[in-house]
Amino acid sequence: MVMASDFYITSQAANQLSLFDSDAKEIKKTFEISAAPVMIAIDKLGNAIYLSHPEQGKISVFDLTSHQLISEIRTGGQPFAMVLDSQKPQMFVSDWSRNTVLVINTTSKQLVDLLAVGESPAGIAIDSVGRKVFVANRESNSLMVLNADTPDLHATIETGERPYAVAFNPHNGHVYVACVHDDSLTVIDSKTYQKIADLKPGRAPYGITVSDNGEQFYVVNQNDNTLVEFDAESLEITKTIRTDKMPESVVLSSNQQQAYVTNWFSNSLSVIDLQQAKQIQSIPLKDGPRSISSAQ
């Protein structure tokens, strides 16, 4: 049985999906997956796990309970980041080789639309209530805002260089964009489409997550091997915490007291106590850990 304390982790080089028990602080199961899984999206209502395979031009779909493969969506191109729409049975997927966002019907498991965006779209996020999709265009140095219901473009906003990850804070309407090449993080107002700030989180900022109450957000820096905590109101760094080598992605525990960080070079998962502001455990993972997502 999958519990609220469980998290899924992809290992791209090892072709595996791991199930991490955050209560026991151990990997309780691993699953062999077809070539090079990268990103994860968990559809709790649809009882499904979606894994992107950019090298294979497909998205695989697994049953969240049995972990059996139930479908393969042959998208073509290079499907990368995925975000589910909580208001409709659809999922948006960045495709960085075709400069598009794919729209997947999560009921039929079919590709139903392709939306043109900028060059090499990477990170993607959604405001399901405001009906907006945010896409970071890595080679265009921009964030595009799309309508989640119609194939309309709301805005194109300049970011730092080589934007990668995107996160939306529903509490203040801010969008955070990690820009790898110039070590910056662009903060954008999702209502006015104005840039609020260019922050300096560290060297090569990568993954981002937002706390449940919206009061903090967290960024991992690949070239510094750190996790930084920002105050969402002041936009000041409040904590800097060491991780293992080349952190990729970050999520928070259900009680918001711990952070879990996948580390590409160390093949590990950093368990971080946010109150103590330090790593308290390093858990070995299979080769090439990329993304981590809560099972619940």
Automatic annotation (TrEMBL):
Keyword Signal found: yes
InterPro entries given in the database record: Haem_d1_sf, Host-pathogen_enzymatic-act, WD40/YVTN_repeat-like_dom_sf, YNCE-like_beta-prop, YVTN_b-propeller_repeat
Residues in coiled coil: none
Signal listed as a keyword: yes
Species lineage: Bacteria, Pseudomonadati, Pseudomonadota, Gammaproteobacteria, Thiotrichales
UniProt cross-references to NCBIfam families, sorted A to Z: beta_rpt_yvtn (TIGR02276)
Keywords: Signal
Name the record gives this protein: MxaE protein
Classification via Pfam families: YNCE
Domain (YNCE-like beta-propeller) ranges: 125-276
PANTHER family xref list: DIHYDRO-HEME D1 DEHYDROGENASE, PROTEIN NIRF
